[in-house]
Structure formats: C-alpha cells, structure tokens
C-alpha cells in the first residue's frame, strides 16, 4: 500500500511539474489536459485520479510554482535578508532564461484576473508572501517605509523581468535588466 501511495504522489508531482512549466511558458490557457498528460508520459484518463478538474490542476500548479519560488525567497529573505542579492538574482541573465522554472509573476500576472477563482486566490497569496518578505527585509534594514516600499520594489522587479522577456533583442533585454538592477538598488540605498 505504501508503494502504491508513493507512486501516486510521485505521479501527481510529475503532472504538477509539467503543468507549472507549461503555465510559465504558455500561460493558463496554454495548458491542455491531453497534451499535459502526454508530456508527463501518462494517459488522459489518468488525470482524474489526481485532480477533480482542469481548474483544480491550475490551482495546484500555481501552488507548486510559488513553492518552488519560496526556496529562492528563503535564501534571500530568510533569517539574514539580502535584498541586493535578491535584486541581482531576480533580474539576472539566468533568471531571464529560466522562463519555465522561474518566478511565476512575470509570466502570469497579466492572466491572474482571468484565472479560475481558487487559482487566483492562491496566486494572490503568493504575491502577498513575496511582498511581505520584502517588507520584512526592508524593516530589518532600518527602513520605516518598508511596507509601502515593498509594493514598489516587487512591482519593479516583476515589471522589469516582464518587459525584458518581451523584447526581441536579447542584448537590449539584458542591458535593460542590468540598468534596472543598478537603479533599483540605488533607489533603495543598496548601491
């Protein structure tokens, strides 16, 4: 029984991993159950053994994306916050290239309002955790305006990555990220 349960959990995790990658690359509408199950090496009929509906899958995939992002946030916003390190990492060339594995905010923010209700609530919770982590780090750094500044900092991080990924000229996109990193750190006193 334990083997069967472990296999089921492993299969569900594989489906969620594929769904999270597909959503990061093509958005919520870019995820079809048949294609997803084929990518995961499974049959379409097996889907309903793991999820109630496509909307249920989308909600759990949103959770999965934010769980993956939480590891990075913990590294930079944990016990000893490193906001400069977070900015450098978030707006780096490696993050720019990691569309299928990176933070879900740049790719999905524009779609959040059209997500299924449960997925949207989970998305908003992920945004809130990210913003609160930044606010806490700013307050630890002695900023009295940490909560308000966290809104702006998060918006600038996500906006810069979103715009860079929208550019057709990769060199210009990477320059845009470098300039954004420098100006953002300068603006909040981390330069």
Automatic annotation (TrEMBL):
Q: What is this protein called?
A: Transcriptional regulator, tetr family
SUPFAM superfamilies recorded? Homeodomain-like (SSF46689), Tetracyclin repressor-like, C-terminal domain (SSF48498)
Assigned keywords, A-Z: DNA-binding, Transcription, Transcription regulation
For whether the record's keyword set contains Electron transport, the answer is: no
One GO molecular function term? DNA binding
Its transmembrane ranges are none
Domain called HTH tetR-type: residue spans: 9-69
Q: Per its UniProt record, what Gene3D superfamilies does this chain match?
A: Homeodomain-like, Tetracycline Repressor, domain 2
State the species of origin.
Sphingobium fuliginis (strain ATCC 27551)
Q: Matching InterPro entries, A to Z?
A: Homeodomain-like_sf, HTH_TetR, Tet_transcr_reg_TetR-rel_C_sf, TetR_C
Lineage at the top is:
Bacteria, Pseudomonadati, Pseudomonadota, Alphaproteobacteria, Sphingomonadales
Q: DNA-binding region at which residues?
A: 32-51
């Amino acid at each position: 029984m334990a083997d069967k349960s472990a296999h089921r959990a492993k299969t569900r995790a594989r489906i969620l991993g594929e769904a999270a990658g597909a959503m990061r690359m093509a958005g919520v509408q870019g995820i079809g159950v048949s294609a997803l199950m084929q990518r995961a090496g499974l049959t379409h009929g097996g889907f309903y053994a793991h999820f109630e509906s496509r909307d249920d899958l989308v909600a759990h995939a949103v959770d999965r994306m934010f769980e993956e992002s939480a590891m990075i946030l913990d590294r930079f916003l944990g016990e000893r916050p490193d906001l400069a390190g977070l900015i450098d990492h978030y707006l780096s060339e490696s993050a720019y290239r990691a569309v299928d594995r990176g933070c879900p905010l740049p790719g999905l923010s524009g779609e959040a309002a059209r997500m299924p209700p449960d997925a949207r609530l989970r998305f908003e919770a992920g945004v809130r955790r990210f913003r609160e982590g930044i606010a806490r780090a700013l307050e630890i750094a002695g900023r009295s305006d940490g909560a308000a500044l966290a809104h702006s900092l998060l918006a600038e991080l996500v906006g810069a990555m979103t715009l860079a990924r929208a550019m057709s000229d990769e060199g210009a996109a990477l320059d845009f990220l470098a300039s954004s990193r420098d100006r953002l750190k300068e603006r909040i006193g981390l330069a």
